[in-house]
Amino acid sequence: MGPYKKSPLNKISIQTLKQALLLLPIMVVALPSYSESFTAKRAGQGFTGLTLDFTSSLSNPALLTKFDNDDDIFFSLNVAIMASDKYNVIDTAEDISNNLDTLADDINAIPSQNFQSPDQINTYYDDLDQQVDNIISDLKRIDKKVVKVRNGLNLQILIPNKYLSFGLFTSQYGRIGGVMDYNKDDEKILDDAILSGDLDLNDLESATTAVGYSIAEAGFIAAYPAVKHANYDISVGAKIKYQRIDLYYNSVKINEFEDDDFELTDDANTTAKSGSNVDLGLYINWGDERQWHAALVTNNLMKQTVHHVEQDITFTLENSTSLGLSYQNSWVSLATEIDLTDREQFASLASSKYAGFGAEFSFYEHIQFRLGYRTDLNDIDDDIYTAGIGISPWDVFQVDIAAFSGDSDTIGAALQLSLKI
Predict the structure, then answer these.
(1) How far is 292 from 43, CA to CA, in rounded Å?
(2) pTM of the model
(3) Is the sign of the CA dihedral 384, 390, 396, 397 positive or negative?
């Protein structure tokens, strides 16, 4: 069966983590996602970005008013991915799949063997028993162990001005989680196959289960400087967007782990829902040098629910609100960001609520170093440590790179390419 051509889940992430996607679970995806841009600048600074500048308008549309007089047009392309495989599930499952093929060949070859002695027979059958022991041991070792994958992709074109700043954007972000469910009856199936000399791998019941979602958006950003005071400034902004939510589910037996026909995004495995939605942003800065900044952002004013009928799985995209605070001067930015509400979630599973802290240090105006930390106040998701670097020669072309790692062997990276005119 071919891939689901209309899926917004970007093909780069599918190909890069295809094997990871084969291992993904219902029980794990208390994997609420960020309703935001997942950009390299934001990720490098502890996933904080609500109070940065107009280049972070995907996180807070009101930031479109925070620009310099020589900023006319801004283009940005960003791609990011994060994965966690603490128990080496992917490599182990690959070994199991390969070992099962070898075992099936050896068992099904028993009738054609021309044994010359009892010792040769015993050696052959001892080897088959050892193969079964190794396979079952590996299955037990990764049983119920978790794999997580998250990705993000966005493109924005921003045109700031003193009257009404605006821009266009498209973005996609999603999360998938998985587990392999070992069925203890498989050991008996393999043992019986040795006695009968016939093994059909399709009789095995151990399987991988995958569930996740992708949210694709495209729309218009606008911001207006509502108040300009001697002591403070206030801006408001909005993102009006068309939104598509894809809910994925699939279950594949362990012997099909390397099957090239398996696609998480096949039509049969996907349920989609589309509609319009709105994000709102508020931005305030104050101080003698406007060094203090605060923001309040509400994403997805309209609640969206997607139900996978065949598997009775429900995903809800809830309204979420976050608060951001920061101190900024010419060489340092210190920021924090806190969710005031829980994130979106699958039905009957606990959702996350994040708090992030980060710093950015500027050198020679064209080099930025970033550090940060993000935790889940609900103790659902893993804690993440982040680092990043930005290089912006002549403040025209900019490359931002971020890397993150954390609990459960979580690793990830983001790359952002920008052009400012």
Answers:
(1) 21
(2) 0.81
(3) negative
Please choose, from the candidates 81, 212, 92, the residue with its C-alpha nearest in 3D space to the C-alpha of residue 145: 92
- Residue 350 pLDDT greater than 70, yes or no: no
Rounded to whole angstroms, how far apart are CA atoms 196 and 193? 5
Strand partners, 155: 77, 170
Provide the CB-side half-sphere exposure for 192 (13 A, CA): 9
What is the spatial distance between Cα 221 and Cα 58, in angstroms, rounded to a whole number? Answer: 8
Q: Whole-number mean pLDDT of the chain?
A: 84
Q: State which amino acid sits at residue 222.
A: A
Please state whether beta strands 292-299 and 207-228 pair in parallel, antiparallel, or not at all (unpaired): unpaired
Question: Which strands make up the sheet holding 304-308, listed edge to edge?
Answer: 304-308, 313-317, 345-346
Whether residue 414 contacts residue 421, with contact meaning beta carbons closer than 8 Å, is answered with: no
Are 318 and 343 contacting, i.e. CB atoms less than 8 angstroms apart? yes
pLDDT of residue 269: 74
CA dist 399 to 40, 253, 363, 390, Å?
Answer: 9, 43, 15, 6
Mean pLDDT score, 13-26? 38
| CA–CA distance, 89 with 147 (Å, rounded to integer) | 7
Contact criterion met (CB below 8 Å) for 333 and 48: no
Predicted pLDDT of residue 36: 54
- DSSP labels, 52-74: S-GGGTTT-GGGGG---TT---E
Measured CA to CA in angstroms, residue 260 lies from 15, 165, 181, 206, 359 at distances of 11, 47, 21, 19, 44
Q: How many CB atoms lie within 10 A of CB 63?
A: 31
Residue 95 has pLDDT above 60, yes or no: yes
| Tokens standing for residue 61 | 């549309």
- Nearest CA among 316, 360, 318 for reference residue 339: 318
Task: Give pLDDT tens digits for 215-251.
Answer: 999 999 999 999 999 899 999 999 999 999 988 887 8
Backbone phi and psi for residue 67, each to the nearest 5 degrees, phi listed first: -145, 165
The answer to whether 181 and 23 are in contact (CB under 8 A) is no
Domains of the chain and any CATH numbers: 11-261+275-420 (2.40.160)
Residue ranges of alpha helices (H) inside 29-184 are 40-44, 89-108, 118-142
